[in-house]
């Protein structure tokens, strides 16, 4: 955002406006939007990505909460070019836009993880997503088992998406500069054939429980759900911590628990 633009970024909305033209070009090139595609931008802000997207698209959807920014966007583009969905992206029904939806955005860092979990529910409607996020969040998203970055977010997202870390973005690319580094990540929903059929609520409970106390072993964290002998029978060492288990082991635990549950 140029210094001359008369808009004060709001901390409660996590506003840091992207201004680096090289980064903006790289993101748009990664997305490569084509006429006829349904593209929605989360948090368009002052239009850093909106403008180049609309240079390639006849129409764009945007989800924006800030009323002042909504007014600016409405002045800049007519409704037939830019459809603005005024409201909180955490509550927005992305499925209402149809199927094969492409999602882009510089996500507010203060809601990035909840928003990613919200978007998981709409994976069947989505072709791909390209997001700017805090660098440490992207590290957690793509982390492999065994490291400190690997956690609940890693397992939950890796079950539903193929993910790729595309580029790093320094604080100076924003106005005002955030106190953290950023990165751009691509998420592509897995096909139904790539996803092990599971009780999704049970799987989410297993993962959340396992990572609820990272320093404790599975014997302790999952003790209320299953015995150590049952973990061992699945080929899982109950003396390991949650960060040591790959996605397939969490899926195996969820299948075991579902098979053991009494029929309703």
Automatic annotation (TrEMBL):
Any single GO molecular-function term of the entry would be: 16S rRNA (adenine(1518)-N(6)/adenine(1519)-N(6))-dimethyltransferase activity
Positions with a binding annotation for S-adenosyl-L-methionine: 16, 18, 43, 64, 88, 106
Identify the EC number(s).
Answer: 2.1.1.182
Q: What class of enzyme is it?
A: transferase
Pfam families named among the record's database cross-references: RrnaAD
Protein family? Belongs to the class I-like SAM-binding methyltransferase superfamily. rRNA adenine N(6)-methyltransferase family. RsmA subfamily.
Q: What is this protein called?
A: Ribosomal RNA small subunit methyltransferase A
| Species of provenance | Thiobacillus sedimenti
Gene field: rsmA
């Amino acid at each position: 955002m140029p210094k001359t633009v008369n808009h004060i970024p709001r901390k409660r909305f996590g506003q840091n406006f992207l201004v680096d033209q090289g980064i903006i070009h790289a993101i748009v090139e990664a997305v490569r939007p084509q006429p006829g595609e349904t593209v929605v931008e989360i948090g368009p802000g002052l239009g850093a990505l909106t403008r180049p997207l609309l240079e390639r698209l006849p129409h764009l959807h945007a989800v924006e909460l800030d009323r002042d920014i909504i007014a600016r966007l409405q002045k800049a583009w007519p409704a037939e070019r830019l459809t603005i969905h005024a409201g909180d992206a955490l509550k927005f029904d992305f499925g209402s836009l149809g199927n094969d939806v492409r999602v882009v955005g510089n996500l507010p860092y203060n809601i990035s993880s909840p928003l990613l979990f919200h978007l998981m529910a709409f994976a069947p409607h989505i072709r791909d997503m390209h997001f700017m996020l805090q660098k440490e969040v992207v590290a957690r998203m793509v982390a492999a088992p065994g490291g400190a970055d690997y956690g609940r977010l890693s397992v939950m997202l890796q079950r539903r998406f193929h993910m790729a870390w595309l580029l790093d973005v320094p604080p100076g690319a924003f106005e005002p500069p955030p106190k953290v580094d950023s990165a751009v990540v691509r998420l592509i929903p897995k096909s139904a054939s790539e996803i092990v059929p599971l009780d999704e609520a049970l799987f989410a409970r297993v993962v959340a429980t396992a990572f609820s106390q990272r320093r404790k072993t599975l014997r302790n964290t999952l003790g209320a759900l299953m015995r150590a002998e049952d973990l061992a029978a699945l080929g899982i060492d109950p003396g390991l911590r949650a960060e040591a288990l790959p996605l397939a082991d969490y899926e195996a635990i969820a299948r075991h628990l579902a098979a053991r549950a009494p029929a309703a």
